[in-house]
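sry for the spam today, last one i promise. C-alpha cells for design, 153 residues
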C-alpha cells in the first residue's frame, strides 16, 4: 500500500498526522503538488513536484496510484478517478469515498458548480477546524487498521 496526498491545498494541521502515521506503520507516502514543500527526512516520505496547470497533480496521482492504494484529496473528480482504479480516497475532513457514494458526491459537486457558473453565490465549505482534524485522524486510523489487518491475513 502507498498513500498519495493531493498536497496543493492540503491543510497544514493534517501533515503531522500523516507523517507520524506513515512512519509508525511503515507505509510509503508521496505528496504531489505544483510547488515544492518541505517534508520530513524519511525514506518513507517523498515529494513530487509537477508542472503547473489544471489537473497536473491529479493526473500524476492517477498515473501513480495502484489498486489498494490510498489517496487523500478534497478534489471530488480526482476521488472519482481513484475509486474507478480500485484504490481508495479520503478527504481532509475524514469522509471515505467509495463506489457507493462517489457518483452522488460528484453529481452534487457538478450541480453546485453549475449554479456558481450561472451567477448564484453558493458559499464555500466551512472553515477547517479541530473537529475536522479529529474526524480525519479517526478515519485514517480506521482505514489503515482494517487494511493492515487484512494484509496480514
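last one done:
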Amino acid at each position: 500500500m502507498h498513500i498519495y496526498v493531493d498536497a496543493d491545498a492540503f491543510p497544514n494541521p493534517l501533515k503531522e498526522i500523516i507523517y507520524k502515521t506513515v512512519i509508525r506503520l511503515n507505509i510509503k507516502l508521496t505528496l504531489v503538488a505544483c510547488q515544492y514543500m518541505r517534508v520530513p527526512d524519511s525514506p518513507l516520505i517523498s515529494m513530487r513536484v509537477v508542472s503547473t496547470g489544471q489537473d497536473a497533480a491529479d493526473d500524476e496521482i492517477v498515473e501513480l496510484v495502484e489498486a489498494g492504494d490510498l489517496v487523500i484529496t478534497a478534489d471530488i473528480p480526482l476521488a472519482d478517478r481513484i475509486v474507478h482504479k480500485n484504490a481508495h480516497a479520503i478527504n481532509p475532513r475524514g469522509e471515505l469515498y467509495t463506489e457507493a457514494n462517489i457518483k452522488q458526491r460528484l453529481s452534487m459537486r457538478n450541480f453546485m458548480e453549475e449554479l456558481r457558473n450561472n451567477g448564484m453565490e453558493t458559499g464555500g465549505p466551512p472553515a477547517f477546524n479541530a473537529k475536522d482534524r479529529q474526524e480525519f485522524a479517526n478515519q485514517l486510523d480506521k482505514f489503515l487498521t482494517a487494511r493492515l489487518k487484512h494484509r496480514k491475513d
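Helices lie at 12-25, 56-64, 76-84, 102-117, 130-152. ok im logging off now
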